[in-house]
Amino acid sequence: MRYWLMKSEPADVSIDDLASFPDQSVAWYGVRNYQARNFMRDQMAIGDGVLFYHSNCKIPGIAGIARVSTTAYPDAKQYDQTSKYFDEKATPEQPRWFNVDVQLVKKIPLISLSELRLHPELERMRTLQQGNRLSITPLDPLEWNYITTVLVRD
DNA sequence: GCCAACGTTGGC
DNA sequence: GCCAACGTTGGC
Length: 154
What we know:
ph1033 like fold, two-stranded antiparallel sheet, globular, EVE_domain, PUA-like_sf, EVE domain-containing protein
């Protein structure tokens, strides 16, 4: 059982979008970074904990708790010529990009990035490190526990 | 819209 | 295999 922080741009898929989808789940398509891909392909398992993070928006931060609901499978968008995620070097025989499905557990009152930065317990979190751009990062179980038990209020 | 950080590309 | 140029991310 592992824990992850996964960034989504709410203009693309927000926590409310996720809540409205069938099974409240979504294919985590569009990851085009090898390190993030490898996390999904090689390390994620069904049931892993996910912090659903809103990035590139007015108030970035953690918007919900979710879970990994499938193992990794080829990202369909890599074959879609009309998609910005199309990859001409990918074939069904040799897919290059993978994704898991992520399912909502619960929406939470937003924990903003600026609030996260106030907690010394979280200072080692990768998402808080300067210059970090990875859209998927592993979370230390202590960080997961701190966020989901101390910071989530409702 | 700025720009720092950093990943990728491609010439050599 | 180096590394400069370029593109992207994402907070501010």
